[in-house]
Amino acid sequence: MASKKETKNKNVHEVEVKINGEAWQQALDKAFNDKKKDAKVDGFRKGKVPKDVYIKKFGIESLFLPAADIVLQDAYDKAMKDKDLVPVIQPDVNLKSIDDKKVEFSFKIITKPEVNIKKYKGLNIKPEKVKVTKEEIEHELSHVLEKYTELVTKDGKVESGDIAIIDFEGFKDGEAFEGGKGENYSLEIGSNTFIPGFEDQVIGMKPGEEKDINLTFPEDYGVDDLKGAPVVFKVKVNEVKQKQARELDEDFFEDLGLEGVDTKEKLEKEIENSIKAQKEMDSENKYVDNILETVGKNVEVDIPEQMVAEEVDRLMHRFEEQMKMQGISLDVYYQFTKSTEADLRNQLEKEGYQNVLYRLMLEEIMTLEKIEVTMKEAEQEADKLAEKYNMKKEEFLAQFGSIDMIKYDLEMRKTIETLKELNK
Length: 424
What we know:
By secondary structure, the protein is of the alpha+beta class. Helices cover 47% and strands 20% of the residues. The protein has 13 helices and eleven strands. The chain is extended and about 95 Å long.
């Protein structure tokens, strides 16, 4: 039997389900049959203990939770069927009561909220026109030249901008500290790679010269033992190198390795095209954001907080994966940013709400505009993406989620394209 309670948000449904009678007794029997396989009772072989003996020794209460797990899915299906509800996120489940006669569950089910869009057509939003200036081309060209700069050994003193190849070891109170030692380390003077003052004191040293550098670690340094601590670095300069600009000659273009680019003019054109492509992509993203933001201001919807919380969970997981790719755990991130998990969740709250709002908004527009994607189109898209990532289709779908997710992604993209057409 299922009963429903009203909540403040009409899209949050409390549904109670009771499983009793024969269904509950069968679940208890199945739980006993599973339990007795490993039950050890004197006088009986494993798996052969009678039910009454098992209950006398372990108590019928030991069967309650396993039996509740057995009937949970049926209880959930009953809640969905009896109340004709379609959840948009995983429901919360609460075990209300349980004994040898019955089990009672309470499901908190979130259904899709009603979305009312006052206006989404004729907003007259246009993308920004893209232009590449001569200064931008020259700036990027200087970066290309810097990337291919040659390092040439020099005999003189270390100067700002030079690369000093150094050995160093740090000492605190006369004891070497962990992480404070390096050999043949290439230090670019002026890069501010080391703590403040270190690079300044290397300036003027010559190859072969040794020197003690006295410094104090910053108060906000990431290692507690070194915060604000006075230390001594024993430094030896092994070699000094200076950057030598490359000429735009045949050797340079050969090193560059861009097909068909063998003159300064062709390189500048390549750079211009690259800058333009990036600007066009940025402009397109900003254009779509402007449309979504404007339409979003014309939407009336009561979004359940549970939907936002689930989206924040997804964003948290994505952020954690991004940190892992940089070799940083969340614990280390919290330590260096002096923040907590709660702080990060609060930072992502606005983005989470916006993502849910836009998703609901686009789904409503998709319905209003009768936008459809066939399974054939979804399969073709899956084939294309699998080929792009050099994966088997089944392997790609296993990682992406499912063909239904491909279909949904295509629906959202079609809806955005329709929105662009409706607002030119």
